[in-house]
Amino acid sequence: MRIAIDALGGDLAPAEPVKAALESAARHPDYTVLLVGERATVEPALAAAAGGGGAPGNIELVDSEGFIAMHAEPVSALRKQPGASIPVCVGLLKSGGADAMVSAGNTGAVVAGSMFGLNRLPGVRRPGIAAVFPALTEAGRCLLIDVGANVSCKPVNLYQYGVMGSAFARLILGVATPKVGLLSIGEEEGKGNLLVKETRRLFAERGGAFEFRGNVEGRDIFGGDVDVVVCEGFVGNAILKVAEGVSETLLRTIKAEVQQMVAGGDGGDGQALGAALKRLKQKTDYAEAGGAPLLGMTGHVQICHGRSDGRAIANAVTSAARMVEQKINERITEALHAHAT
Amino acid sequence: MRIAIDALGGDLAPAEPVKAALESAARHPDYTVLLVGERATVEPALAAAAGGGGAPGNIELVDSEGFIAMHAEPVSALRKQPGASIPVCVGLLKSGGADAMVSAGNTGAVVAGSMFGLNRLPGVRRPGIAAVFPALTEAGRCLLIDVGANVSCKPVNLYQYGVMGSAFARLILGVATPKVGLLSIGEEEGKGNLLVKETRRLFAERGGAFEFRGNVEGRDIFGGDVDVVVCEGFVGNAILKVAEGVSETLLRTIKAEVQQMVAGGDGGDGQALGAALKRLKQKTDYAEAGGAPLLGMTGHVQICHGRSDGRAIANAVTSAARMVEQKINERITEALHAHAT
After folding, report:
1. Helices (H), chain A
2. What digits encode the pLDDT tens for the residues B33-58?
3. 3-state secondary structure of B223
4. ipTM passes above 0.95
5. Does the beta carbon of B233 lie under 8 angstroms from any beta carbon of chain A?
6. Chain B interface test: which of A193, A234, A262 (most B C-beta within 10 Å)
């Protein structure tokens, strides 16, 4: 297995992607990790991070020209910088030089680059990005798909997200029969907008290798009753950002309270709780969960949060490897074919 | 001032609405509080809550027939139960028997009842529900409008939500020049769906008594850079539920950690932190913020969360009273007139 890491993607590049490469190479000694980025930047970063012993033999550098800035407009950036690290990663997928790619860079550029450079899987109308949320489910995770690849969906897109998301839940999260919910603004059948009403009908008509649970609400993403929630990319992206915002604000406020307690002399206990909070932050940090897979394209693409550290990116590599091993794309193609009208 | 409280609305009715009536009557001795609900249910609840001294003179009971269940389909419920507490409250607004109403009952029924029973303010195309979130703004609050009155919006609806929301921010939250953001999936001008792009243009064309800050993301609701965020009701409702879900899940997890610490013998400190958490929960509990005003109708309607306790409902009464005093509806009408094309 060969996995490409975008060495120049993310707020903490190249240091953290390079750390991720070292961690991934150690975790998976039989895999080859391709570090994609300008050699002049990546080589010294790798040497520094690897220390005296040098980088392990299963890391290879792949040279690229520059990188796409985090807030660049994706389509024009891809046009202007065909040799940047993101399109080079996509090119490796296309040529078979890599089985999967992981990037913490400009999400729009990763999605657009994949759309231009790869093909959709047979039967797939539009790819979707699945965010993996911590949840009270048995697997401890709930997928929200789509969180931004497709801002304006048709019912068939949402239905296909249900098929793709449940393939991920089955193969990667180990849920035997995933429960799929359709995001709406009330659980009753009559509620929601036109898209929800038509999508609900489509799920009922076509079915699939999952249990369709009808309409769910935003809070159900965390509640444990569903493994996959489907929604339009505009809504999913807003939800992702709100969840991050609430979680950060709350944890910051609590941290301030704990620091006050510690300053007030309650040293021991406050410190114990500080450690507990840190664990909690990791558990609820969506960046830690292993990246968000872009589902529906020929090639395995994992998108990481821009703030991802080395461990988060390494988790995404592990998750991407698992997708390749489990042949998720073949399973998605079969499932769509079996339940096409 | 006369304010109607739906005595039978919410998961904790009639006990909590009745407590809210007592608290409101005490807070505002010059106002009349109308408790609307079946006399046979409300009278004994009021007597029990008021204790030996009896209810104060500025509480009046208004009889109704039954109540609309929390999950009933609003339109058919209103048709079948024209004498239920929600339509009776709306009727009081319509007849001038009350200046404002507050309900923790079926939100859909409150909205539909208001739409049928009241008129839209001159110039208003569609009313919107504004949720009041805790935020890092100077006022400590950020409005998200609409959170469910209008699932399928046109650009003019979102523009008008900006006008109405900024009137609320100015008159009720005391923000001199409210900053209004348009919810999108990236701050760049080109991002978002078609609705966002057209709405952005409309804000730029018409302007208003606010500062339009362009596109914002979900996390900006809590970030302090904007006082009002406008979005389609479907998206806003999903966001509201997600924010509740994340906040509850996190606080529950932290509470469990604290309890473990207390059980482990770290009594004093754990208890202090438990109290701190309780304060935090109140601060971040959207139910506490004083209810969500339905803006754009002739009459002042405050919608409370179904789980609201007496204090939360009383806060909504105070907020409703302030809207009446500040003549928010006249100000909204003027603002829309001044910036109509």
Report:
1. 15-27, 39-50, 74-80, 85-95, 107-117, 155-171, 194-206, 220-223, 233-263, 267-284, 310-325, 328-338
2. 999 999 999 999 999 999 888 899 99
3. helix
4. no
5. yes
6. A234
